[in-house]
Amino acid sequence: MQIPVINQSKHPLPEYQTAHAAGLDVRANLPQPITLKPLQRALIPTGLFLEIPVGYEVQVRPRSGLAYKHGIGIVNSPGTIDADYRGELQVLLVNLSDQEFVVQDGERVAQLIVARHETITWQPTETLSETQRGTGGYGSTGVR
């Protein structure tokens, strides 16, 4: 699959870091570093603009290394970029640690996953089919 992209950053396009990686690492495109204080969030620009095919989305997900080593996540994880969005791809980072974290220009801040999705229509009804689980919700399949 090919996705048209405009790269207004000074960094390479997002790329897979290993042969079988699902996500492409995307980099911050910053005029100066951004310091995230504990529990602070910020939109991190990437300088990328995408033309995603209809029927697909790009999911923006946290990088496991940043999450594990520094407590850096994405507020609305996974974020979704819709096929009709033409603005700059920005990553909404949050610092969940008790230490400040400095986001540097060119730092890999998130990973992008391209995923197919369906468009549905609702079918109103009065009943749903029965299942063994039924209405069991949170924790209902745990130890009893």
Automatic annotation (TrEMBL):
Annotated stretches, region: Disordered: 125-144
Name of one Pfam family that matches: dUTPase
The protein, known as: Deoxyuridine 5'-triphosphate nucleotidohydrolase
Keyword check for Repeat: no
Residues spanning the membrane: none
Cofactor: Mg(2+)
Domain of life of the organism encoding this protein: Bacteria
Organism: Hymenobacter endophyticus
Keyword tags: Hydrolase, Magnesium, Metal-binding, Nucleotide metabolism
Domain dUTPase-like as annotated: residue spans: 11-142
InterPro entries with a match to the protein in the record: dUTPase, dUTPase-like, dUTPase-like_sf, dUTPase_trimeric
Gene behind the chain: dut
